[in-house]
């Protein structure tokens, strides 16, 4: 999975699962402040990616995630380790 594919899937998850408006999803958008996602939403997002990629994503890797781009980076790092 390429970084672009991770980004595209994240956009799909945000729109479909969390009803985030497409226009709000930008690389520097803050998850809590701009997209109104809370910690439970973040866990759901990680689980969705785990199901998609078939790999465990460590919660510790997401402690410092604040933006859309941070999520893309972390998920891509997990995928790239394959």
What does this protein look like?
The chain is mostly helical and 82 residues long. It has one domain: Non-ribosomal Peptide Synthetase Peptidyl Carrier Protein, Chain A (Orthogonal Bundle), CATH 1.10.1200. The chain contains 3 helices and no strands. The chain has helices at residues 3-18, 39-53, 68-80. α1 crosses α3. It is globular, with a radius of gyration of 11 Å. It starts with a helix and ends with a helix.
Please summarize what this structure is.
The protein has 82 residues and is mainly alpha-helical. It is 54% helix and 0% strand. Helix 1 packs across helix 2 and helix 1 packs across helix 3.
Helix-strand blueprint:
Layout (H helix, E strand, L loop, with lengths): L2 H16 L20 H15 L14 H13 L2
Helix pairs in contact: 1-2, 1-3
């Amino acid at each position: 999975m390429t970084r672009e594919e991770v980004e595209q899937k994240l956009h799909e998850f945000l729109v479909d699962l969390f009803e985030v408006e497409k226009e709000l999803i930008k690389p520097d958008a803050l998850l809590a402040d701009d997209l109104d996602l809370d910690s439970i939403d973040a866990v759901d997002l990680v689980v969705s990616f785990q199901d998609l990629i078939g790999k465990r994503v460590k919660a510790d890797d997401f402690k410092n995630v604040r933006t859309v781009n941070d999520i893309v980076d972390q998920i891509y790092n997990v995928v790239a380790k394959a």
